[in-house]
Amino acid sequence: MSKSVVVVGHGMVGHRFVEALRSRDESGLWSVTILCEERYPAYDRVGLSSYVGVWDPKELALSGNDFDGDDLVDLRVGEGAVSIDKGTRTVTTTAGRTLPYDALVMATGSSPFVPPVPGHDGAGCFVYRTLDDLDGIRSAAASAGPGAVGVVVGGGLLGLEAAHALSRLGMAAHVVEHNPRLMPRQVDEGGGALLARLVTELGLTVHTGVGTAGITQSEEGIVVELSDGSTIDAALLVFSAGVRPRDLLAREAGIAVGERGGILTDVGCRTSDENVYAIGECAAVEGRCYGLVAPGYSTAEVVADRLLGGGAQFPGADMSTKLKLMGVDVASFGDALATASGALEVVLSDAAKGTYAKLVVSDDAKILLGGILVGDASAYSSLRPLVGRELPGDPATLISPVGEKPGAGSLPDDAEVCSCNAVTKATICGAIADGACDIASVKSCTGAGTTCGGCLPTVKQLLAESGVVMSKALCEHFAQSRAELFQIVQSTQTRTFSALITKYGKGAGCDICKPVVASILASTDSDHILHRMQASLQDTNDHFLANIQKNGTYSVVPRMPGGEVTAEQLIVIGEVARDFGLYTKITGGQRIDLFGARVEQLPAIWKRLVDAGMESGQAYGKSLRTVKSCVGSSWCRYGVQDSVGMAVSLENRYRGLRSPHKIKFGVSGCARECAEARGKDVGVIATENGWNLYVGGNGGQSPKHAQLLAGGLDDKTLVSYIDRYLMFYIRTADRLQRTAPWVDSLDGGLEHLKAVVCADSLGIGAELEALMDKHVAGYQDEWAGVLGDPEKLSRFVSFVNAPDQSDPTVVFDETGARKVPVLMGMPSLPTRR
Question: How would DSSP label each residue in 307-331?
């Protein structure tokens, strides 16, 4: 005889329970009724921030969340539970129905904690929990306008996610955390300090060690008063100060709850009523609530097993977390805060590189207990499965940038690779052996990587170590690689992102594919990068045609081909720096940078520079930056060729060329190499017999000398080879791949490149040169294009509601020899653009 189970709540954990029960209940013992109080069935709440920019609930929908075709599942969307009658074993719903049950599963989750500060329930105050919450925040942000201030109360995991969402909505996000550091439950003082610095440099304003004292309404929005007496004028506020288990239904029904909330259960997730179970965030398993999805899934599996006659018990929880916030990696796993008796800490902090790594080990330094990674979390996937196990080497070596890291293959078979879904290495390897040959197949077979995705690097390693060729898809929205998308754009003459993704991709795009497509469009045509819809694809620097600096100001960098500049132009630069109060510096790229310009000042500054005959130096773009040169044979007694003339010619030819990453040139007039050409993407060195061409040199974290491509070249041949080399790179390189790793990645490496460029082995030499000629013919200075277009000029305003007001948070310290920015909070600001 069939039994009925009513599930109250259809979040991620409730959905997992129904999936587990239906997949195992082969005899159809249980019929399931799901009460889903939200407007949408189960969706990925862990990835809630990805809803921003997409605004399509289907993109977050969990697979099979409608249970279409399953006659034993009755999903009631928009209908919640009002009360439970334990005596009659019935549930009354918001629709007035009374549903009988043989078993009741409480999956009500949790609700955001809203501190009881004065004004917390006024207009402009939101929580960050559901799709409807984000729709409300989106509407308020749109009404306030770009650059408006948004405050997030809470600097924990969810608070930083909320701040990230506000930033993606175009808001100036502030984070208020009453603890002395961000993410206090996951990272220690050192990790928190670096995290605060990194997110501040990326545009967030962080207030730690202060609380929210009150919220009052104002004509422009709200005023947030902090406990230190300071205030923030804002358009909206989001509470993300933690969650509380939703246990009211259980309380009112007389089901036992914990002292600190949550529905009390035993290790079998059964409550004080033998017919009622609790799973997920609402459950207090033996008195403890867990706020992560992985332990929630474990409780769902336990109850599914129990209803089918099993004796499963809650196995405990892995509280590891990993996120990427605005490009900053943060990971915490195991006993991250070293609470165990005798625990030792091994710390490697590199402030210059912006990384912090800590391993917590046993008192004999053999067993890994936990760890924290900030700035670079690439080791997370290999370290987390080792928690509680003997380390494969010296702890310091495992987090050292030059140390040898353990590969995925070295993990023991029973190591849990995917903690969200309790998937071991053996399970993944078994799936690969049975024919799962890509990430999607492994996900489908094992469930690994289907929740937070933090284990996917390890899954990819296991696939690679098994001899599987990995997909080169650009992102989840395009199955093609960057090189394939380049070919599509070029051959089809597609000129908009929307047309490209409609025909060749899916969804609405993301912060990976949009800038890539913008770069491809710029590389294949001469449209201005702020032309119509292309403007929305650009990142912050390209959006304002300037490099944003740590205090929110911008740098102005006029082009100086080959380092040449006239006396008149130098005078204009000096006058601009003086009149606008800018800090000036001569750079290693042989030009002058002017720092400290506010966004509304940029057009006025560039008007004077353009009138003096100068162009944008494109220091903000993934494009040609500089062509550095020595004085060459024109002045130097050692020079054998006119290096300055060649440098000027090359910079004028390749200026404005958009590429997968920045490109730098160097031209030296003799073998003494004063222009350091062999450290550049393109290096040209003069000899008595012509020019030697070097390629693939890079500085940065992994410096590499350029390699000789060809020697003894005349001017015409040199230019044709550079044309071919650059266009071949732009056509075939991966996203953000510099020339040095690109050359190494080519099948055949430098020898293959020589064959393509010098011997035209692919027969595309003339085509590549023609593409470069098209770029040269269509070149236009980007700033000149802005100054003549009122629509583009309208972007350059600091404050929407006070266009003539200067930003009061832009402050400099001029007491020393150098003018430097001072980082401040942002009290009493009008709506910022």
Answer: HTT-----------EEEEETTEEEE
Q: Minimum mean pLDDT among 133-147, 342-356, 444-458: which range? A: 444-458
687-701 residue pLDDT tens: 988 999 999 998 875
Report d(CA 97, CA 108) in Å as an integer: 19
CA distances in angstroms from 765 to 29, 63, 254, 305, 487, listed in the order given: 69, 48, 80, 65, 16
- 3-class SS letters over 771-790: HHHHHHHHCCCHHHHHHCCH
Interacting residues of 328 by C-beta distance below 8 A, sequence separation 6+: 195, 198, 199, 202, 374, 375
11: which 2 tokens?
């979040």
Q: Do the Cβ atoms of 250 and 271 come closer than 8 Å?
A: yes
Q: Which residue has the higher pLDDT, 257 or 47?
A: 257
pLDDT on residue 396: 87
- Decide: 78 and 194 in contact? Cβ < 8 Å: no
CA 553 to chain centre: 22
Exposed / middle / buried, residue 352 (Cβ in 10 Å: 0-12, 13-18, 19+): exposed
Q: What is the structure's pLDDT at 352?
A: 79
DSSP string, 525-536: S---TTSGGGGG
Q: Which residues pair with 73 in a beta bridge?
A: 32
Whole-number Å distance between alpha carbons of 154 and 127: 11
Residue 808 has pLDDT above 90, yes or no: no
Q: Please tell me the predicted confidence (pLDDT) of residue 683.
A: 96
Comparing 573-577, 631-635, 804-808, the range with the smallest average pLDDT is 804-808
Axis crossing angle, helix 456-465 with helix 439-446, rounded to the nearest 10: 110
595 φ, ψ (degrees, to nearest 5): -110, 150
| pLDDT band at residue 454 using 50, 70 and 90 as cut-offs | low
> Do residues 681 and 695 make contact, with C-beta atoms less than 8 angstroms apart?
yes
pLDDT tops 60 at residue 825 = no
CA dist., res. 165 & res. 128, Å (int) = 10
Q: CA-CA distance, 248 to 253, in Å (whole number)?
A: 8
Residue 64 tokens read as 């099979």
Identify the pLDDT of residue 347. 93
Average pLDDT, the chain: 88
Which residues does residue 694 pair with via DSSP β-bridges, in sequence order? 683, 708
* Exposure string for 455-483, b = 16+ CB within 10 A, e = fewer: bbbbbbbbbeeeebeeeebbbebbebbbb
Tokens of 648: 């000027």
- Which of the four pLDDT bands, split at 50, 70 and 90, describes residue 822? low
Q: What is the mean pLDDT of residues 267-285?
A: 96
Decide which of 98 and 397 is more confident: 98
On whether the CB atoms of residues 784 and 776 are closer than 8 A, the answer is no
Query: Which whole-number Å values give the CA distances from 231 to 194, 211, 629, in the listed order?
Result: 25, 11, 51
Strands 344-350 and 355-361, sheet pairing: antiparallel
Per the rule left: phi > 0, alpha: psi between -120 and 50, beta: everything else, 278 is beta
Least confident of 85-99, 272-286, 356-370, 524-538: 524-538
Tokens encoding 514: 């949009």
For residues 481, 482, 487 and 493, what is the CA-based torsion angle, rounded to 10 degrees?
Answer: 120
Distance CA 338, CA 336 (A): 6
Q: Are 557 and 593 in contact (CB under 8 A)?
A: yes
Burial of 517 (0-12, 13-18, 19+ CB in 10 A): buried
Helices (H), 434-481: 439-446, 456-465
